[in-house]
Design brief:
The protein has one domain (8-125). It contains 1 helix and 5 strands. It has one helix at residues 8-20; strands spanning 37-38, 48-53, 92-96, 102-109, 114-120. The termini are far apart.
Length: 134
């Protein structure tokens, strides 16, 4: 299935909609996912559904440039979500079918490993930063 690419504005709209719902106790929140994490085994993938992507269709090689202002780092819970920067530019947007929370997911690949990563979407952290020059 192919999804349209979401820009920062569309992602903010989705996040606001998800955050406006009354909080519902859900199994998807067993492990804090405010910053990037390896996808926990406790997360029931069957309750997640893909609703969009941040990957640009016409981009041959997405940038590996990161947007990490101040003292934030890749793992920081308060690191900005900048859709045109790594790793967000490789993410799919997923929604929990039980509680409506939004998550970003991508697969990190190294020389000898593959790690599925996940991060909760918080609208206040989304920044519309222009795509870096390659």
């Amino acid at each position: 299935m192919s999804f349209d690419c979401l820009d920062a504005t569309a992602l903010i709209d989705l996040a606001r909609r998800a955050e406006s719902k009354a909080p519902v106790p859900c199994a998807c929140t067993k492990t804090p996912l405010d910053g990037w994490q390896s996808q926990p085994l406790s997360l029931d993938e069957t309750q997640l559904r893909e609703i969009g992507t941040l990957m640009l269709k016409d981009e041959l090689e997405p940038t590996f440039a990161e947007y990490l202002p101040g003292k934030t780092n890749y793992w920081s819970a308060d690191a900005p979500i900048a859709p045109r920067y790594f790793p967000y530019n490789r993410c799919a947007v997923w929604e929990c079918s039980v509680c409506g929370r939004l998550y970003l997911r991508y697969t990190e690949g190294g020389g000898y490993f593959v790690d599925r990563r996940i991060r909760a979407v918080h609208g206040a952290l989304i920044e519309d930063i222009p795509r870096p020059e390659s």
